[in-house]
């Protein structure tokens, strides 16, 4: 049974008719008192709850009702109904226990399919969460994974934040592999590596003859991700024009390939990631506020490696894969390092130490030889970062694109670091 709570009788009637046609049993409630009276006695399979009752425009009444409903039906999934202007309010609702939210007006077909999926999902706490890609068991990591587990079962857009090398892509993959879309495509796009002039062709595709060199039709990334998940890495690198185009796709789930006037509709989930401070960029006017709210319905922040040193022994064992034995003093030394490159830098260090070591046993002295001058977590890590960039530039003969590839970062990111560290090209 689905319980629908809304003080708009027209919405109640239309939703009841739509879901009853799909074979669901439906109960409607026009307000808080009627809804609570029902959940005290019955436990519906799913609850659809409006966040804004006409008597209270702040949304607090909807949040209050949500918290009360979860007391009586803690395992029942709750879907919030809200207007676009109240997306930040819906975020608060997700934190309070809702599993998803829909904005008015909605697409009836997509709504029915979403509700069918939610009702068929196992209830929270039944196990089955796959975290195999994530190594570590620190309190910070477990707290982050609790959010991942909760969000994965929904279709909510997710923004993953954190420094470079913290594993944002792995978290995005974990969200996808624990979602109802797990058997559908997972498409990764590094937006920092997509030139502005090629953004539309790369993301939306093009028709034959759309521009010089377009000798055949090409499917874009959004079309490839249809029915699955698209991971937009380095979302903060988008230029203002591309931001407008991205916003339209996220709002309307439609786009037009280059050279075509026919819109293409897609059903996909969006997970994005950035190491930039998007809220600061919004204040500075370099990132659209409406796009920011579309992307960060749920924000998951990944801690830096120096903030969870207790995970380093497990990570080292994982990267070593039985090829070497790192002694206790070597592990202790690694737990004091700053790791400005985070897990990616740790992995490279482990690999380098194994390669240069004469035998399986790697102690602190051998590790020091492998990594060079030690920079501890209490020291300034800028000098190490400067050395890494200078080495990459030297290896790339000064070519920025090649140096960025060596460092596994985008060209705009490398340019920002060069400017920050006052490196003369």
Describe this structure as you would to a colleague.
- With 425 residues, this protein is of the alpha/beta class.
- It folds into four domains: 2-120, Response regulator (Rossmann fold, 3-Layer(aba) Sandwich), CATH 3.40.50; 139-301, P-loop containing nucleotide triphosphate hydrolases (Rossmann fold, 3-Layer(aba) Sandwich); 305-371, Helicase, Ruva Protein, domain 3, CATH 1.10.8; 382-420, Arc Repressor Mutant, subunit A.
- The protein is 44% helix and 14% strand.
- The protein is built from 19 helices and 16 strands.
- Strands 2-1-3-4-5 form a five-stranded parallel β-sheet, sandwiched between helices.
- Helix 3 (60-72) links the parallel strand 3 (46-50) and strand 4 (78-83).
- Helix 10 (240-252) packs across helix 12.
- The radius of gyration is 25 Å and the shape is globular.
- Residues 374-380 have low confidence and may be disordered.
Features:
single chain, 425 residues, alpha/beta, Rossmann fold, Helicase, Ruva Protein, domain 3, 4 domains, five-stranded parallel sheet, globular
Note the quaternary state here. single chain
How many domain regions?
A: 4
Biggest beta sheet summary: 5 strands, parallel
Task: Briefly note the structural class of the backbone.
Answer: alpha/beta
- Gross CATH architecture of the largest domain: 3-Layer(aba) Sandwich
* N→C terminal distance: 66 Å
CATH C-level label of the largest domain: Alpha Beta
- CATH superfamily caption of the largest domain: P-loop containing nucleotide triphosphate hydrolases
How much of the sequence lies in strands comes to 5-15%
